[in-house]
Design brief:
- By secondary structure, this protein is α/β, with parallel strands linked by helices.
- It has two domains: 70-81 and 347-446, Aspartate Aminotransferase, domain 1 (Alpha-Beta Complex); 84-342, Type I PLP-dependent aspartate aminotransferase-like (Major domain) (Aspartate Aminotransferase, domain 2, 3-Layer(aba) Sandwich), CATH 3.40.640.
- The protein has 13 helices and 17 strands.
- The protein has helices at 8-18, 23-30, 49-60, 84-90, 93-96, 108-125, 137-152, 165-175, 194-200, 222-231, 332-367, 394-402, 433-446; strands spanning 70-71, 129-130, 156-160, 181-185, 187-188, 191-192, 205-212, 235-240, 258-262, 278-282, 293-299, 305-312, 374-376, 385-390, 406-407, 410-411, 422-426.
- The strands form five sheets. It has a seven-stranded mixed sheet, with helices on both faces. Strands 13-14-17-16 form a four-stranded antiparallel sheet, covered by helices on one side.
- Helix 6 packs parallel to helix 11 and helix 7 (137-152) crosses helix 8.
- The chain is globular, with a radius of gyration of 26 Å.
- The protein starts with 7 loop residues before the first helix and ends with a helix.
- The relative contact order is 0.14.
Length: 447
């Protein structure tokens, strides 16, 4: 609780400067009388600061608290370790109140953090350019599809069936009024069906979008997919889990034209689903078609380093017919969190996190073979997430595990009513061997 040192003398001085004889008369001048509430407001009687603190603490205890739960949740939002330095830095007022105004060059600190965010994203993904960030992974994918349609002047988009269902719904909603035809390519055995994909691409196809790892956690043959797509002169859009890029090939290495993803794993809490961070990168040749903002580095008239908004492709800044999107902002604080996360881990740290995710998820996957009533759904390579089939309904398994304060995964019936016996499990670097063994023990008892 902050102390506000506003004295009666301060109030008199403020009122004198603005020419108001009293606070009540100031309110009467600002708010019409018929809009003013004349009766009691329903507030309780005044209490001491100590009593207020107790009251607020009691209200806070009514919030749902998951800190005591062991979590194997995934499906796009993950329980990764967040270094304490992140909250310490982003809680500074110059960061959490910062905004890039229309006279953007005044905010040199904000522009510098965005420039550095863009730089580390390009290095991580192997792509040439990054924008200043977007709302979330779903809106980033939708913007990528719109961008590809504009570049290719075609109206057909192919989405892998194994892109996050919410991302696909966002894309379909986003492009519906733009005359875009969204086609879904089916999967086979837990990965994209490449034969079907090749048959779906035609002269109207602007882009093909594929997730790596896919929604079920399995690894796609991205170089092969890229060759199929480019052979038919379409653009290749990769939807990546950026934390996997410490151990998996980056999209720039297998020829992606655009790479998007969800950056929540980079130091942003799960927070029951948001706020999130949309990552958007591309090849340099498409830089003028990128949505949102791009910050660049330059020098001023004295030769000192400075930062500017190099590109702002919103209709407010350029001729309306030249605009590439209506995105006018970016997730600046979340982008800063991800920047601090990546800088605090360093190059080796992001590799270590990826290797730990691989090792721990595969340990759990291997041990599941010793439990009756559960088996892997697919025989495919995965990064940190995989699907199992359970003899009992997956929702029933989930509810039983909650009694042991374990979030046992995500039942796929949430996305498809037919998948009542499929459970998706994610294992991050935070899970210890003891925690995984406890999960296995409780899962065995439930099944």
């Amino acid at each position: 609780m902050h102390y506000l040192p506003l004295t009666p003398q301060d109030e008199k001085e403020i009122l004198k400067r603005i020419g108001a004889p009293s606070f009540e008369k100031l309110i009467n001048e600002i708010i019409p009388r018929d809009l003013q509430h004349q009766g009691m407001c329903g507030l309780p009687d005044a209490v001491s600061e100590h009593e207020v603190r107790k009251l607020i603490a009691g209200l806070a205890q009514r919030n749902a608290n998951t800190s005591e739960y062991l979590t194997f949740l995934g499906a796009g939002i993950y329980d990764h370790y967040i270094p304490s330095i992140i909250d310490s830095l982003i809680s500074r007022s110059e960061f959490y109140t910062a905004y890039t105004p229309y006279q953007a060059e005044v905010s040199q600190g904000t522009l510098q953090t965005i420039f550095e965010y863009q730089s580390v994203l390009c290095e991580l993904t192997g792509m040439d350019v990054s924008n200043a960030s977007m709302y979330d992974g779903g809106s980033a994918l939708a913007e990528a599809c719109h961008m590809a349609c504009v570049i290719k002047d075609r109206n057909k988009v192919i989405l892998s069936e194994l892109i996050h269902p919410y991302y696909r719904r966002i894309t379909e909603t986003y492009t519906r009024e733009c005359g875009v035809n969204v086609v879904t390519c089916p999967a086979r055995d837990g990965v994209l069906d490449l034969d079907t994909l090749a048959s779906l691409i035609d002269g109207d196809t602007s882009c093909v979008c594929v997730a790596q790892p896919n929604f079920h956690g399995y690894l796609e043959k991205m170089p092969d997919i890229g060759k199929i797509v480019h052979a038919k002169d379409a653009m290749f859009v990769a939807v990546v889990d950026p934390i996997s890029l410490g151990v998996l090939a980056p999209p720039g290495e297998y020829g992606a034209d655009i790479a998007v993803g969800e950056g929540q794993a980079f130091g942003i809490p799960q927070s029951f689903g948001g706020p999130l961070l949309g990552i958007f990168t591309a090849k340099k040749e498409f830089v003028k078609s990128l949505p949102g903002r791009i910050v660049g580095e330059t020098t001023d008239i004295d030769g000192k380093r400075g930062y500017v908004l190099t590109l702002q492709t919103r209709e407010q800044h350029i001729r309306r017919e030249k605009a590439t999107s209506n995105i006018c902002t970016n997730e600046a604080l979340c982008a800063l969190s991800s920047l601090i996360y990546l800088c605090s881990l360093g190059k080796q740290g992001i590799i270590d996190v990826g290797n730990l995710c691989v090792a721990k998820s595969h340990y759990l996957h291997q041990k599941l073979s010793g439990i009756n009533g559960i088996k892997p759904a697919f025989n495919q390579e995965f990064f940190k997430e995989f699907v199992v089939e359970t003899e009992k309904p997956a929702q029933e398994v989930i509810h039983s595990l909650l009694e042991n304060k374990i979030f046992g995964g995500v039942p796929l019936s949430l996305f498809d009513d037919k998948n009542t016996h499929q459970l998706m499990i994610a294992v991050t670097e935070k899970r210890s061997k003891e925690e995984i063994d406890r999960f296995l023990e409780c899962l065995g008892e439930v099944l």
